[in-house]
Specification:
With 399 residues, this protein is α/β, with parallel strands linked by helices. Helix content is 56%, strand content 13%. The chain starts with a helix and ends in a 5-residue tail after the last strand.
Amino acid sequence: MNHRKNLIKLIEANGHRHGHWQVFSDFVEMAAISISNAVDLARHAGREARYLEIVRKYEREEVERFPRMLGELVNELEGGPADVLGAVFMKMDLGSKWHGQFFTPYHLCRMMAGMMVDDHMRGLIQTRGFIRANEPACGGGAMVIALAEEMYAAKIDYQKHLHVVAQDLDLKAVHMAYVQLSLMHIPAVVIHGNTLALEERSHWLTPAHIMGGWEWRLAAAERRAAEADEKTTRAAALHLDVQAWEAIAAALAPDGIPGEMLAEALGPINARLEQSAADAEWPRMMIDTDMSILKRHKDRPPRPYALLSESEKWRADAMIAEAIAHLSDVRLLVLDRFDVLDLKGREDLLVWLDILAQDGEIDTALIFGTLKGLPAQLPETVEAFWIDNGVAGQMKEAA
């Protein structure tokens, strides 16, 4: 049975008194209202009033033809996805009533839709759970229907993995698209409005959109996207900060300062090393005239840097870095691998830094290390952060 021809005959039967274009327009609007009012209670009252207003124009026999029209449309779509209403519209030469408007042939829509169903689409679905399609001039919905058909042919369940926002300036086109997308159970919001002017006059939510909980799914997706953008922005800012600190640290490293300046500054540097050793209760260090680093002892010769333990070398490096920062008036200290210290050494380090901060000797100290948890009883001047995969957050217990 040719259901498309039967649909046209029913429209023509009612068109003897009202005109084919008017009957077609009233049919798609009443069909859209009937579907919408079954699921969209928020818009029920206004649309029901509009439905009754349309029905009053027709005789009883004419009214009874409209459900039969919808039945023929349903049966035609049972044979496979297609822009049935668009084809009927063009077949009946109704385009002149819409100032020359016509609908894209369905085979062209399928060709274009087929280009979009690829591995990239599958990857998006695997990552996000669904894809979103936006059709700014949807007409009768042919492009969306073709996309759904191509997804189905590729064994992708469009009823679960596709959400559509379709918009058109012409209300009749909106009704056509809404009815066909609803009958195909495509999750969609069909909007009557001007896409270019960002104007929206009414929304038509398909049953698949409402029953599939798509309002919640879309909101959750928006939240995840916003959180991802925020993390990316924070990570980029932290990356720039780290680059800046690295540049400063490189400038403050011993090999970054000319030897003549360092030799001239040996007296003040050694004095500063003495002060730091006293404050931190660490071994006394000095820089000799040949630029060698020595650990000083009261009753025996100094011990060269190369013979020191790893933790002693770290203390020496830390005090020298602080001395150079102090004398350069940089007021910044950057120390890495402080976890080489034992618990007493770490406590001494924090006490020393606290003294420097309270005395106004430094403004910022960046101390990096690998720990299992937050050190106990941190001074008020110390704030701890946990860095995981390049992202800084509040200090926490390690897994």
